[in-house]
Structure formats: structure tokens, C-alpha cells
């Protein structure tokens, strides 16, 4: 398949906007599946995990390949729930284009904002599909206005709905100026084309004029035809819409109802017509592992092999399934590849084309394509697969820190090793999931992005890996930091094995808000060995993880070494490492240390009659209301609240709103916790 006939796309949206339902229809009309599976029945093809079927949500981004109009479309259906933000982040990193699914009733919802900003970060061109046009309160034009207002984007309607809510029956194509209806008797496969009805002609003419005005404004040739009153050929319009979509100057808008099998085929045409192929987007930028300079990686099958492992999935029979996006070169089954991050060679035993959880063997994979490698034992999410001749790192993926923890313990001693092994596999799959042994209590602590995230992972341990384990109540992951600057000099003297071990160093520490922990050494090497500098750095960086007063990891502290007292007869690496640990500890205790707690952004969607009760639920938990937005049938409340007070919030919210309000929550920042740990739980 030539690169210009390939599309790597993602379907992204808020929870319940209809991503998986839309993907399911795309697979049906492209002949990939022969029966439409419904999420409500737990039968959606892309939601193949048992938990996804039971909960009715997407947890893991599923990859599949399908074909439409002789084009190969690699689709990744991403989760909408904020707890699985890592899945969205890693998918957007490797996509060339995306379909943003908006709910016709809700418009731009809180999680839509998160994924939209992530897509902006990776410069992903988008088209929008306004779904659920058959629902009460559906508003196609309202969704466009919402997008324009929230993101300063430039939405351009290429379709108009015929009717809305229960009277929604099809779409008007503004390029061809025809009406299209989709026969419900054969699940929308039969498409009827007709002229635009007289009662809709004026509206269609008005929006056609807006479309021509916008598209012609960026192209001199089209502007000349438009101003001269001549008809612009549809193919020229399509080419210009494609150019401007890829340049992210416009966002084409389409509409339909995936659940009612209405207007999915035109969406497929739009994916082929307007979203970029791998050579339409700028070349990937990588960093040379040895020289440190930036290297451009053109999408060329004849180039040096270079790909990014953007997802790891564990399979009981095959081991690790490594999802790889190839940016350059070609890899055949049986080839050896070089893992740049690990500095080791590994063999690709098999290459598979994925269709949700079904597979198809491939002989090779070339630049621009996405496939699964089997046989890579060392690879982790974010690793670059390449060659020793050109060791480069493609951009590392950045994931937010976990904010919630639970203690987990195996039912029997014999299960402990199995539990540790399972945790290792799960953290390889999901970088936002971590586990560690608590030195003080001896407990095994697992951490993640939210209650649902940990609940899903613990259920997977029990059901998929058959590990019997007990889980404690959720606890908040706190941090420690300093609130003042401090200079300190530490002298270390010990007799170890009958020999004197001496070290002395001075350091300066100060708050480093929002920039994380940093370490700087302002001492010139002169006659001090490099090993001593390494020992000091190890001592300080290890101390960041062990806390100040409460043992929680440190954050936002800047440490600068200002002087080193080195004695070549008595100074050892061990002495300097121990001296650095003591110096850090003493300095932090003098610099007004504080306990920090995670504060969450909370977005509540509530019917108007329950909005007062919903807001009081947040304020009772120490939350602060930031702003409110009114939509046709709902109110959106934006608030911030401490994570520690938000446990069980979903139950309280459901009870005061008769189950009709919903909310999403994501980490915002750390702030000083009032009252220390006395009232932490």
C-alpha cells in the first residue's frame, strides 16, 4: 500500500459521546465485521476486554486496520475517561489525524477539552463528527459555536442535519448540494440521494455561501472564481479543504447518529479526503543518543529503521505485544532491532496486524505503518526501536504523576512473587501505574490516576492474572516541599574498617514552584575526581524520593552545591554520598518544610434543577467553585477540590441528582495541606 493511501487516525472524545459506537459502524461499513456490536449489550468489537464490556467504557486504546476506497485506515479507539489519560496521550503521539466525536446535546464537554489540548500539543489535524443528532436537545450549530468559543478554532460545516431530535433523518452535503438518507431497514447501508427540499434550500444556500467564503479566502485561484461568480469545481474545493485541514487552519464539521447507523459512510469519505497521510505531516524529530543534536526522520521505507513503541499489552500466550509506529525504514519478521533506551539488540519474532484482539500475521512493516511486534522482552512504552548506526530517541512520552494509592497484599505468602510479577507487567503496560514497597510499614503500595483506574487494574490482577490479593482503602499520594531558602554546610567523619572517612560540602536549597526537583553543582572539578561528583548527585537525587518529615516524595525543590571539601587521603565516594544525604535532610528541615496535597479539577455536568445540590456537595468537601456554563439542558460546574475529600463523591452526587448528574476529575496541582497529617484521612 503506497503511503498516500494510508491514514493513521484516532477517534477521540468525552465519555459517552459515542467513540466506540462510531468506530463499530466504521468497521461494519468497511466490511471488517459482519454484525454491529452494541456497547449497551457488552458486544462492541473494540471493547474486547471483559471489564470494558461489563462497565460499558473503553479502557485500553484498541488498534485495528480497515480499508475504504482502496485506502488503508489504521484506527485507534481511545478511552474517554480521564483516569486513562495515558492511553490517549500515547495514541495521539503516533497519529497523523483524528476524528473528534462531539455529543450533539453536550457539545464540548470537559474531557473533550483535555484530549483537544493533547492533540494541539502533538499538532494533530482534526475533523469533527457531531454524534447523537437524534437525541432530545441536539444542536449541531451550538456544538460548532462551543468549539469556536472554547478553543478559538475555526469550524467549517461541510454537512447540515436534515431535522433534529426524533425528526432527524439524514444530512445535506454542502459540496454536492444534495440530501442523503440512510435506510434503517438494512442498517443504513442503502443511501438515497435526492435534491434539497424547498423548505431547507435557503438554509443550505446560506451555509454553502459561508463554506465557499471561508475556503476561497485562503486560495487566490479559488478567490478569483468565487468573486467572479463562477462555479468552483468540487475537486478543487476538496483539495483546498484538505490542505487547510492538514495545516490546522480549519476544522471540517460533519454530523449524524452512529447508533441509528446514519451518516457514517460520508465520515469515512471525509477521513480519506481530508485527513493526512504519513507524508503529509512534518517529519518526526528525534534526538541523537550520543551527540545530543536534533535529527529529522523523514517517512521513507528506504531509510534507516526507526519506530516508537507507543503501547505494551500483555498476552498470556504471546507475552508482550509491542505496538510500534514505524517512522522510517522497514523491519521484517525475524530481524534484529536495536532498543536505543536499553542499549541492547532484540529479535522481532513475529509482526502482526491487529484487529481489536484478533490478529493477522505480516511479513514486514514499513515507514508510516502501525503494527505489533512479538518477541521484544526489554521494550517499554516510549522506547525507540532503531539501529546502532543511528541511535536516536524519538520524543519521550510524558505522563502525569499518580495521585492515589492503595495497599495491596497477597492472600498467601506463595502468591507474593506472582503478585510482584503481575505488577511489573501492568506497570510496563501503563506508565501511570506504579508499585513500591513501603520501607516503614512493609506494605506493598500501588498508585494510579484515580479510583476507577486502580479498581480496573486490581480487577485485572484478580481476573486476568488469577492473583488472589486483598486491597486496602484508597489513600492520597502526598508530597513534601520547602517554603523558604536555606544554606547549609555538613561535615561527615566516620571510622570505617579502621580508616578515617571524611567529607564536607555546602549546599543551597530553595523552593522551585511548578518546575519539579532540580540539582545543580557550581563547584569546578579541579583536583576532585568525577566519582565524588557522581556520589554527591546520587545522595541528593535519592533523598528526593525519601521525603523530609513524613517520608513522602519531595517536589519543587532546587538544590545547588556551592562548595566541596575534598581530602585525597580520607575522602571516599561513600562518605560524600552519606554527607549529601545528611546535608539535604538538615537543610530541608531548616527551610520550613510543608506537606502538599493533590488538588483536583472537578467538572460536574448536572441537569439545571439539581445544580444547586451538586455544587453544595463540592463545597462541603472543601471545594471551590471556579466557574459555570449553561447549555440547553445542563449546567457545567468547574471546581477545584482536595483529592483526600473526594472519595465516594460519585455516590453522593448520584443520590442528590437522582442519578442524572455526572462528573470527571483530573489532577491540577499540589498545594500546602492545612494541619499537616493530623487530619489527612
- Number of separate helices: 15
Shape: globular
Q: Which strand order spans the largest sheet, edge to edge or round the barrel?
A: 18-17-23-14-15-22-19-20
Number of domains: 5
Structural class computed from helices and strand pairing: alpha+beta
CATH fold assignment of the largest domain = Rossmann fold
Number of strands: 38
Question: How does CATH name the architecture of the largest domain?
Answer: 3-Layer(aba) Sandwich
CATH homologous group name of the largest domain: P-loop containing nucleotide triphosphate hydrolases
Q: Low-confidence spans: pLDDT under 50, at least 5 residues? A: 37-61
For the largest beta-sheet, the strand count, sense and barrel status come to: 8 strands, antiparallel
The CATH class of the largest domain is Alpha Beta
Q: What would you call the quaternary organization?
A: single chain
Radius of gyration: 28 Å
Q: Tell me the β content.
A: 25-35%
Instruction: Measure the end-to-end span.
Output: 58 Å
Report helical residue fraction.
25-40%
Mean pLDDT: 85
Amino acid at each position: 500500500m503506497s503511503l498516500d493511501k494510508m491514514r493513521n487516525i484516532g477517534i477521540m472524545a468525552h465519555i459517552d459521546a459515542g467513540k466506540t459506537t462510531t468506530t463499530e459502524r466504521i468497521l461494519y461499513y468497511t466490511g471488517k465485521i459482519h454484525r454491529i456490536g452494541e456497547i449497551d449489550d457488552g458486544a462492541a468489537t473494540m471493547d474486547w476486554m471483559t471489564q470494558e464490556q461489563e462497565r460499558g467504557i473503553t479502557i485500553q486504546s484498541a488498534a485495528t486496520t480497515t480499508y475504504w476506497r482502496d485506502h488503508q485506515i489504521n484506527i485507534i479507539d481511545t478511552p474517554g475517561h480521564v483516569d486513562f489519560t495515558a492511553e490517549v496521550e500515547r495514541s495521539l503521539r503516533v497519529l497523523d489525524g483524528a476524528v473528534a466525536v462531539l455529543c450533539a446535546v453536550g457539545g464540548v464537554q470537559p474531557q473533550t477539552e483535555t484530549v483537544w489540548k493533547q492533540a494541539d500539543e502533538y499538532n494533530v489535524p482534526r475533523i469533527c463528527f457531531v454524534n447523537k443528532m437524534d437525541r432530545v436537545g441536539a444542536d449541531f450549530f451550538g456544538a460548532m459555536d462551543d468549539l469556536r468559543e472554547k478553543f478559538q478554532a475555526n469550524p467549517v460545516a461541510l454537512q447540515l442535519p436534515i431535522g433534529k431530535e426524533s425528526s432527524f433523518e439524514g444530512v445535506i452535503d454542502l459540496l454536492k448540494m444534495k440530501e442523503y438518507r440512510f435506510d434503517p431497514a438494512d442498517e443504513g447501508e442503502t443511501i438515497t440521494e435526492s435534491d434539497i427540499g424547498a423548505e431547507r434550500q435557503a438554509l443550505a444556500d446560506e451555509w454553502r455561501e459561508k463554506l465557499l467564503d471561508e475556503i476561497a479566502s485562503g486560495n487566490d485561484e479559488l478567490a478569483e472564481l468565487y468573486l467572479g461568480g463562477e462555479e468552483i469545481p468540487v475537486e478543487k474545493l476538496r483539495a483546498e479543504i484538505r490542505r487547510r485541514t492538514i495545516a490546522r487552519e480549519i476544522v471540517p464539521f460533519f454530523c449524524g447518529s452512529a447508533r441509528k447507523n446514519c451518516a457514517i459512510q460520508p465520515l469515512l469519505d471525509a477521513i480519506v479526503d481530508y485527513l493526512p497521510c504519513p507524508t503529509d505531516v512534518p517529519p518526526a524529530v528525534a534526538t541523537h543518543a550520543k551527540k545530543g543534536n536534533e535529527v529529522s526522520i523523514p517517512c521513507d521505507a528506504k531509510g534507516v529503521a526507526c519506530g516508537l513503541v507507543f503501547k505494551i499489552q500483555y498476552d498470556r500466550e504471546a507475552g508482550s505485544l509491542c505496538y510500534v509506529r514505524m517512522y522510517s525504514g522497514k523491519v521484517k519478521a525475524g530481524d534484529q532491532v536495536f532498543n536505543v533506551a536499553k542499549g541492547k539488540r532484540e529479535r522481532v519474532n513475529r509482526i502482526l496486524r491487529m484487529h481489536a484482539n484478533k490478529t493477522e500475521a505480516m511479513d514486514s512493516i514499513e515507514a508510516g505503518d502501525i503494527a505489533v511486534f512479538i518477541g521484544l522482552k526489554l521494550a517499554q512504552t516510549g522506547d525507540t526501536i532503531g539501529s546502532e548506526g543511528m541511535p536516536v530517541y524519538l520524543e519521550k512520552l510524558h505522563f502525569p504523576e499518580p495521585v492515589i494509592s492503595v495497599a495491596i497484599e497477597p492472600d498467601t505468602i506463595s502468591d507474593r512473587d506472582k503478585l510482584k510479577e503481575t505488577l511489573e507487567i501492568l506497570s510496563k503496560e501503563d506508565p501511570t501505574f506504579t508499585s513500591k514497597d513501603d520501607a516503614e510499614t512493609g506494605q506493598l503500595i500501588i498508585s494510579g490516576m484515580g479510583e476507577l483506574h486502580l479498581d480496573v487494574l486490581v480487577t485485572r490482577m484478580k481476573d486476568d492474572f488469577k492473583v488472589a490479593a486483598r486491597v486496602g482503602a484508597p489513600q492520597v499520594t502526598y508530597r513534601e516541599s520547602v517554603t523558604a531558602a536555606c544554606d547549609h554546610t555538613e561535615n561527615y567523619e566516620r571510622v570505617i574498617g579502621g580508616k578515617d572517612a571524611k567529607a564536607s560540602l555546602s549546599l543551597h536549597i530553595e523552593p522551585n514552584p511548578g518546575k519539579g526537583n532540580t540539582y545543580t553543582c557550581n563547584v569546578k572539578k579541579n583536583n576532585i575526581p568525577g566519582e565524588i561528583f557522581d556520589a554527591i548527585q546520587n545522595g541528593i537525587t535519592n533523598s528526593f524520593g525519601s521525603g523530609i518529615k513524613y517520608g513522602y516524595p519531595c517536589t519543587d525543590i532546587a538544590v545547588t552545591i556551592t562548595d566541596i571539601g575534598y581530602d585525597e587521603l580520607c575522602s571516599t565516594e561513600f562518605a560524600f554520598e552519606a554527607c549529601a544525604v545528611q546535608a539535604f535532610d538538615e537543610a530541608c528541615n531548616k527551610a520550613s518544610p510543608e506537606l502538599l496535597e493533590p488538588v483536583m479539577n472537578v467538572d460536574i455536568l448536572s441537569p439545571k434543577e439539581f445544580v444547586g445540590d451538586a455544587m453544595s456537595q463540592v463545597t462541603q468537601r472543601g471545594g471551590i467553585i471556579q466557574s459555570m456554563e449553561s447549555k440547553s439542558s445542563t449546567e457545567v460546574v468547574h471546581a477545584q477540590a482536595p483529592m483526600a475529600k473526594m472519595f465516594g463523591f460519585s455516590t453522593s452526587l448520584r443520590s442528590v441528582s437522582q442519578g442524572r448528574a455526572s462528573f470527571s476529575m483530573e489532577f491540577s496541582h499540589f498545594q500546602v495541606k492545612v494541619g499537616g497529617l493530623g487530619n489527612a484521612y
